[in-house]
Amino acid sequence: MTKRQPRLPPGYRLLCYDSIGSTNEQAQHLARDGAEEGTLVWALEQTAGRGRRGRAWSSPRGNFYLSLILRPDCPVAGAAQLGFVAALAVGGALRAILPRVERLAYKWPNDVLIDGRKIAGILLESETVAPEKLSFIVVGVGVNLTASPQSTEFPASSIIEEGLGEIMPEVMLEEFAAHFRLWNMRWRAEGFAPVRAAWLAAAAIARGEPIRVRLESRALCGRFLDLDHEGNLLLDCAGECRRIAAGEVFPAA
C-alpha cells in the first residue's frame, strides 16, 4: 500500500486501509468496541468521505485521510478544543515538511489555509456516556496533497496545485502524529491558553476584520473580535458581542 511502514511516536496504534468508506466511521465503530486512545485509522482512499454537516468530502488517492481515537478526561464542551489542536498539528507538519511554505493560516473553526485557499479540514465526532461525560472523540483530518475539489463554496487547493512540491501520505502521517502528540500533551497539561495563542498568531482573519458567519438557519455579519477561552468565536454584530460555538466563516460580502 505504501513504500514503507510509517514511523510513529509512542502511544499510537496504526490501522492501514487501501480503500475504505470513511475513516471516521471506521474509527467510531472501533471506539465503540473498545479501541484504545491513540488508535489511528489511515486510508489511501475514501469512497464515502464526509466533512462537516454530512457534506461529501472528495477523497481520491494521493491525499491524506486519517482519523484518531481519543478518550480525554474533559467536559464535553471542552473536547471541541481538540479541533484547534489538530489544526496546529497539521500546520506544524506542513511547515516541517515544506520549509518554504508561506501564508499558512487557520480559519475558524477547523480549516487550514494556504494563500487563502483551503488545504485541510478537520471533523470532530464524539459520543457520550452521560450528559457531561465523554466516551470518546474521533478527530478526522483530511489534507489535499495532490488534488482539491472544484466549485466549492470556499476556494480549495492542494500542495501540488500550490507548487509547493510533493508530500507522500506516509510522511504527512508521521509528521502529523508527532506534532499532534506534542500539542495534545501541552493542551492536557496547560489547558487551552497556549493552543489559543498559537492559533490566533496565524489566524486567517485579523481581529476587527469584517466577516460573515453562517449558522444553522441564518447568517450574521460583523467584525471578528477574538476567540474566547473555550474556543468560541466572538463577533461584534452591530455593537453587540455575539458568542458563536458552531458555524462557518466567510469573508464579508
Quick summary:
With 253 residues, the protein is an alpha+beta fold. A hairpin with a 2-residue loop joins strand 6 and strand 7.
What do you see in this structure?
There is one protein chain. With 253 residues, the chain is of the alpha+beta class. It has helices spanning 23-32, 82-97, 169-190, 193-201, and strands at residues 13-17, 39-43, 64-70, 104-107, 111-114, 117-130, 133-143, 210-214, 219-227, 233-237, 240-244, 248-251. It has a 7-stranded mixed β-sheet, with helices on both faces. A 5-stranded antiparallel β-sheet has the order 11-10-9-8-12, with no helix packed on it. Strand 6 and strand 7 form a beta hairpin. Helix 2 crosses helix 3 and helix 2 crosses helix 4 (193-201). The mean pLDDT is 91.
What would the keywords be for this entry?
23% helix, five-stranded antiparallel beta sheet, alpha+beta, 31% strand, seven-stranded mixed beta sheet
| Strand and helix order | EHEEHEEEEHHEEEEE
Strand order in the largest sheet: 1-2-3-7-6-5-4
* Residue runs with pLDDT of under 50 for 5 or more positions: none
Specify the number of helices.
Answer: 4
Q: How many beta-strand segments?
A: 12
Please report which band the strand proportion falls in: under 5%, 5-15%, 15-25%, 25-35%, 35-45% or over 45%: 25-35%
Question: What is the distance, rounded to the nearest whole angstrom, between the alpha carbons of the first and last residues?
Answer: 45 Å
Helix fraction, binned, reads 10-25%
Whole-number average pLDDT?
91
**Category from helices, strands and their pairing:** alpha+beta
Gyration radius, to the nearest Å? 17 Å
Shape by Cα distribution: globular
Q: What's the story with the biggest beta sheet?
A: 7 strands, mixed
